[in-house]
Amino acid sequence: MDKLLQLGRSLLQPLLAVFVGLAAGAVAISIVGGSITETYAEMWKGAFGSFYFFTNTLSRATPIILIGLGVALAFRAGFFNMGSEGQMVLGALSAAVTAIYLPGPGWFKLTAAIIAGIISGGIWSAFAGWLDARFRMNLLITTLLLNYIATLFAGYIVSYPLKDRTGSAAMAQTVMIDQSVWLPKLFKGMSLHGGFIIAAVGAILLFLFMRYTVKGYETRMLGGNPLFASYGGVQRGKMMLFSMFISGGFAGLAGSVEVLGTQYRYLDGALTSPGYAWSGIMATLLAGSHPLGTAVAAILLAALQTGGMGMERNTDVPLEVSSIIQAVLILFVSAKFTYSFIKRKKAGS
C-alpha cells in the first residue's frame, strides 16, 4: 500500500503538469480561433492515429530517450549536464566518419561506429567534468559553452575537409554511408529503426543500474545528500567523471543512431534544428530523472511534436501551440526540480 501511495504521489505532479499544459494549449487554440476538440483530435491522429504515425512518433522519440537517460544519470548524481547537444553532434560525426572510412564488413563498421559515437560523446562530457573537478569551473556554464565548440567544429569538418562534393555540393554534409552499415528498419516502409530497441534496452539497463548496483547507489547518494556521500567514502571528483562520461555517452549514442538509422550521413544542423537535446532534458525533468519514466516522457514529448505537425497540416492552428504546451509542462515541473536541487546544494555545502 505504501508503495502504491508513493507511486501515486510521484505521478501526481507530471499528470498535473500535463493537464495544465493541455489547458494552456486550449487557451492558445481559442486565441487563434481554432476548435479545441478538433485541434486536439488532429493532434492525437498525427501522433497515434495509425500504425504509421505511431512508428513516426517512436522514431522521433528515440534520440530524445537516449539523451534524456544520460541527463537523468547526471541529474541523479547532482550534476547539471547541459551539453547534450554538443555531445550528440560529436557522437554523430564520429559515427559517420567511422562508418564511412573504417574498412571491414558492415556489421563490424556498424558496431565500431556506435562505439565511436559513445566514446566521443562521453569524452566531451567528461572533459567538462574534469574542468569542474580540477579547476572548479562551473559545470553548467562549461557544458553549455562546449556545445558551441562541438557544433561549430562539426560544421567546419563537413563544410570543408569531409564535404560531399558529389551531387548536391551546396549542402554541408558527408558522403552517404554504405547501406550495409545502416541500422535495420523494424517495419517495412516505416521510419522506425533499430535505434529504438537500443533506447528501450538502455532505459531498462539504466534503471537496473541505478536500483541494484553499488555504483548506482553511490550515484543516487551523491545527488541526494553530497555531505553524507562524502562521509560514506564517495569521491566526488571520480564520481563526476564517471557520471559525466556515461551521460555524454548516451548523448553520443543518440547522435550515432540518428546518423545510422535515419540520415545515413552527417548533415550539418540536422541534429540541432529539431531540438532533440532540449527535449531530452525536458523528458528528464518531467519524469523526475527516473530512467523508465524518462522514456515514457520522451514518447509523450515526441507525440506532442509529431501531433503538432499533424495538427498544422489539417487545421489552421499553427505548430507553435504544441510548443506552448511543452513550455508550460516544463515550467511547471522544473520549478520544483530547481527548488529541490538548490536545497541539496545547500545541504552539501
Structural class: mainly alpha
Radius of gyration: 21 Å
Distance between the termini: 36 Å
Multimeric state: single chain
Q: Please tally the β strands and state the result.
A: 0
Return the average pLDDT rounded to an integer.
Answer: 88
Profile the largest sheet. Answer: none
Put simply, the count of helices is: 13
Beta-strand fraction estimate: under 5%
Low-confidence stretches: none
Brief overview, please?
By secondary structure, the protein is mainly alpha-helical.
Q: Care to describe what's here?
A:
The chain is mainly alpha-helical and 349 residues long. The chain is 76% helix and 0% strand. It contains 13 helices and no strands. Helix 2 crosses helix 12 (291-314) and helix 3 (51-76) packs across helix 12. The longest helix has 30 residues, at 2-31. It starts with a helix and ends with a helix. The model has no long low-confidence stretch (mean pLDDT 88).
Please write out the topology:
Layout: H1 2-31, H2 36-48, H3 51-76, H4 84-101, H5 106-135, H6 139-159, H7 195-212, H8 214-224, H9 226-231, H10 236-263, H11 276-286, H12 291-314, H13 320-348
Notable characteristics:
13 helices, single chain, mainly alpha, 349 residues
